[in-house]
Design goal:
The protein starts with a helix and ends in a 6-residue tail after the last helix. The protein has 2 domains: about 290 residues, Mur-like, catalytic domain (UDP-N-acetylmuramoyl-L-alanine:D-glutamate ligase), CATH 3.40.1190; about 140 residues, Protein-Tyrosine Phosphatase, Chain A (Alpha-Beta Complex). With about 450 residues, it is an alpha/beta fold. Strand 3 and strand 4 form a beta hairpin. The protein has an 8-stranded mixed beta sheet, sandwiched between helices.
Amino acid sequence: MNYLEAEAYLNSLQFHKIKLGLGAMRAFLARVRRPEKDLKFVHVAGTNGKGSVSMTLQTILTRAGYRVGLYTSPHLSSVRERLRAGEAFIDKEKFAEIATRIKDVLGDDKITYFEFTTALAFLWFAELELDLVILETGLGGRLDATNVVVPLVSVITNVSMDHEAYLGNDLESIAYEKAGIVKAGVPVVCGTEEEQTTEVVRARCRDLGAPLYQYGEAFTAAKSAVDSSWQWLGLAGPLAGLIRPELRCAMRGSYQIRNASLALAVLAVLAERGFGVSPEDIRAGLLQVRWPGRLEHIVLNRTREDGGERRGAVHYLLDGAHNPAGVSSLVTTLSEEYTYRHLIVIWGAMADKDLMQTIPLIGAMADRIIFTRPAGERSAEPEQLLACLPEALQPRAVLVRDVIQALAAAEAQAGPGDIIVVAGSLYLIGAVRSFLVGELVSP
């Protein structure tokens, strides 16, 4: 297959719905001689923050000179975004080559889209002979296709409500699924906040003899009261005394300090396993971390009609917040870290998300909210989204089903000092980002 054929074949696998379980993954990997056995991993699970923690680790470790692979999901525009080594995404030719190999090995057998990309990642990373792979779970942990590895460190960023149809209807059930990545004797870095979820992780670690490094107990982050700097505290060992108060994060949002502190705890554990990093690697790496579509600020110059033609800047803020915890963090960040005249929100979401909680949260802040519909059979119709907005706020809303037309409508209303926030779904973020600034990976 060439790349277009490989991409088409992969997309055809989306007709096979989400299927949690490790049987198909293990069976396929056995047929290709278990490439994951030749790799060292950091395995990352959690409801929110997985991508930020993973990208922070990859950035700092790459800067320190290690050859580091990164596997994340979902992607914004191209499936190739899911696989990178250092700063380079997998190229089309290699993607097609390995995809063809997987298809040939499968024969008449079928695996899911996510299982296919996970297998492709293992095969590519094994070819590259990397020092380390940062491996992000897709959904949950216990039955996630990535959970065939025994990592050097397991990470659980947090636990909140999402994917209830697959993971359970309460926090304890979801925590049980996330904690399924814990392996016997393998250290765990955990950022859970609620006692009931922390206790689930703690019990799993106790049963398997896995050392637990819990945020707020083994380590923490202390924010400066006067500026955006912060200090990492805890975890005596190879990094003790190396972390200074002047740490800063490139990514906006106070919650990113918590994510960064989890990454530093992982680095402390890795240092005991031969992956040392310097204080300068940490400080400079934190300032280099970029995670597209997550509080990403884009400024575009536009020619506008406003009593005569003039040149103006249009400010976009793209954020993949799509569940109650993520939207709550977005709302807090907008309140604490941004100054604007009017807030215009473009919102599109999947119909299976908790719309009754997320939409009122963001709707209360918006001066104008434009409901739209990203491509995909799971996408909610704008009328469904409007019905979730409290009646008193509905006069602020307009329905523009086409995403590009929704952007035009927002820009037509945006004036100096206004911010256009695009959120609700990573599918929406991918479509908007591609239109505004182009593809993340080379075409």
